[in-house]
Design a protein that fits this description.
With 167 residues, the chain is mainly beta. The protein has two helices and eight strands; from the N terminus they run βββαβββαββ. The protein starts with a strand and ends in a 10-residue tail after the last strand. The chain has a single domain, classed as Nucleoside Triphosphate Pyrophosphohydrolase (Alpha-Beta Complex), CATH 3.90.79.10. A hairpin with a 5-residue loop joins strand 1 and strand 2. Strands 1, 2, 3, 4, 5, 6, 7 and 8 form an eight-stranded mixed beta sheet that branches.
Length: 167
């Protein structure tokens, strides 16, 4: 099973928005996705999330600004080589301006207009709770078409009470 990361950037301005991208090449081509990819040898999950975000968008995020939100297992019985374990992070602070890369064309979407119909079918299960601050552990089993979800098992944990940042 491949281990990977996914990083979602949330812009707090009015209206609040999420940075997603149209996948231009490779796995998920043609879908709107978050930013991420495989974890390289010797790299932590957090390091991989920050590196992949920078490679795909040109944005730099400090590892301390990545908030762990979900651990998602994707199983494709018709294509086991597509099975993934994905660690999902949110970031609300970063440096730079998003730019298009060879892999992805980034765009901001208002949080009330996320193009779930253009994303992987699993996104409608886990993305809204993650954006509401909930932690998710989930397994998605896809049908033989490798597009639709046959079964979704989710464990949702309420958001922890926020505490003031130390100065």
């Amino acid at each position: 099973m491949r281990k990977a990361t996914l990083c979602l950037l949330i812009r707090q301005e009015h209206p609040p928005a999420i940075l997603l991208g149209l996948k231009k090449t490779g796995f998920g081509q043609g879908k709107v996705v978050g930013f991420g990819g495989k974890i390289e040898d010797g790299e932590t999950v957090v390091q991989a999330a920050a590196r992949e975000l920078e490679e795909e968008t040109g944005l730099h995020v400090a590892e301390a600004d990545l908030e762990r939100m979900a651990r998602l297992t994707f199983l494709f019985p018709a294509r086991p080589d597509w099975d993934h374990l994905v660690h999902v992070f949110l970031a609300r602070t970063w440096q730079g301006t998003p730019r298009e890369s060879r892999e992805v064309r980034p765009a901001w979407y208002p949080l009330n207009q996320i193009p779930l119909g253009d994303m992987w079918a699993d996104a409608s299960y886990w993305l809204p709770p993650v954006l509401a601050g909930q932690r998710i552990r989930a397994t998605f089993i896809f049908n033989s078409d490798n597009e639709t979800v046959d079964r979704a098992d989710l464990e949702i944990t309420p958001a922890p009470a926020s505490r003031p940042k130390e100065s």
